[in-house]
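One-letter codes give the sequence; each number marks local geometry. A record appears below:


***
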Amino acid sequence: MRVLFVCVHNSGRSQMAEAFTRALSCETVEARSAGTMPGSELNPLVAQAMAERGIPLTGQYPKLIDQQIVDEADYAFTMGCAIDEACPAVFVPSEDWGLDDPAGEPIETVRRIRDEIEAKVRAMLDGMGIAPASDTT
């Protein structure tokens, strides 16, 4: 099973979704993330919020979406197309999760978005018949 998470900058939401999918599926789901206009680095507050949950984003970096990544995905999810100016859904047939962008937000907001993403990933895995790990730490 291959899942693709897409957002504009691939520096926050899609990275968290990828990391939660890997952790909660115990690596039984191949998760990738990419962006339509990748940023230069991960949002440091996103990395901090994920580390607080025991999921380091070490080695992760924003990546540009390409047709090969799209073609290899069984499922694709965008992170907030009603919010972002460069909606990736025009490139990827997907379900949109409607998440706020953590860019420029305080850590409390980043944590709320992180928790929303975790809940959505758990529901996604459950819908796929994959029992999510009970804890990510």
